[in-house]
Amino acid sequence: xxxxxxxxxxxxxxxxxxxxxxxxxxxxxxxxxxxxxxxxxxxxxxxxxxxxxxxxxxxxxxxxxxxxxxxxxxxxxxxxxxxxxxxxxxxxxxxxxxxxxxxxxxxxxxxxxxxxxxxxxxxxxxxxxxxxxxxxxxxxxxxxxxxxxxxxxxxxxxxxxxxxxxxxxxxxxxxxxxxxxxxxxxxxxxxxxxxxxxxxxxxxxxxxxxxxxxxxxxxxxxxxxxxxxxxxxxxxxxxxxxxxxxxxxxxxxxxxxxxxxxxxxxxxxxxxxxxxxxxxxxxxxxxxxxxxxxxxxxxxxxxxxxxxxxxxxxxxxxxxxxxxxxxxxxxxxxxxxxxxxxxxxxxxxxxxxxxx
Length: 356
Prior knowledge:
Layout: H1 13-16, H2 23-42, H3 45-71, H4 79-97, H5 101-120, H6 129-148, H7 150-153, E1 161-162, E2 167-168, E3 171-172, H8 176-198, H9 201-211, H10 213-218, H11 223-250, E4 252-253, H12 260-273, H13 278-303, H14 314-332, H15 339-350
Antiparallel strand pairs: 1-4, 2-3
Helix pairs in contact: 3-8, 3-9, 3-11, 3-12, 3-13, 4-5, 4-6, 4-11, 5-11, 8-11, 9-11, 12-13, 13-14
C-alpha cells in the first residue's frame, strides 16, 4: 500500500523530519543555490565584492550568534572578538605554516571555539545582564591581547596585514568571482550543518535551556555541557566568518574591523532578521549590508551629489538611527523578525489544499 503525505499530514517519520518538508521549500532552496552559483555571470564585480560577499560573511557570523542567543538563550556582545580570533589565526596558519585555505579556516574556527569555551564558563553561574558584561569583557580582553602580542598581530597593530594568496589544489583564487565562490561554498556547507544541528538532540536541548533552564535540568539535560557547547559552536562560526572576511572580502587582517560596534551590529541583525531562525540570520545580514547603500543613494538623489559614509557623516548617523529604530520596532511589534513573514506563508502552504 502506498501512503501519500498531504498538506501538514505526513505518512512517514522521514517525511515529517525532512530538513525541507515542503516541496516549495526544496524548490526555493535549489533555485537560490543555482542563482547564487550563477551570480558571477549575472551581475558585475561591484555586486559580488561590495554586496554579496559581505552578506555571506555577516550571515555566517550572525548565524553563529543566533545559535548562542536565538537558540540557546545566552546573550553575547563580544561576538566580533571571536571573529578577530578566527581571522588572525587563519592569517598566521596561512602565512607561517602555508596550510591549505580550508585548513586555515578550520583552524581559525577551532581556536575561536576554544576561546569561546573559556569565556562561556561564567554562563554556568550567571545570566542576563551579568552575562552581557562578561561577554563585553571578552571583547575588550581579546582586542587587548591581539594588540599587545606581536606574534599574533605581526607587530602591525594599527595597520593591516595583507593575506597570503589563496591557492586551492594548484588553482589560484585571485579574482572577485573566485573569492565569491569560495565564500559561497563555505557558507552553504556550514548553513546546512547548522540547520541539521539545531534540529538534533543538542539543538533541542539548547531550546529547552532557552525557554526554561531549571525545567531543562530537571528532565535530565546537562546544563553545563550544553551551554558550553553553544558557546563553542557559536564562536566556531564566528571564527570562520572572521577568516572569510579577511581572505575573501578585505584581503587583509586589521583589528579595526572587529570592534565593539560590529558586535552590536550582529546582535541587531539577528533581532531584525529573527531570533532562533537560520533564515533570519541571512535576512538580517542582507538588510545590514543593503541599508547603507540605500541611504547613500537616497541622500545622493536628494542633494544631487555623492554622500560620504565615513564615521560621523550624515549618512552614517542616519544609518545608525534607522538601524536602532528598527531594532526597537521588531522587539516591540514582532520579536521573530523578518523571518516570521516567510513562516506565515509556510503555515498557509502546510494547510494546503485545506482552507482552514
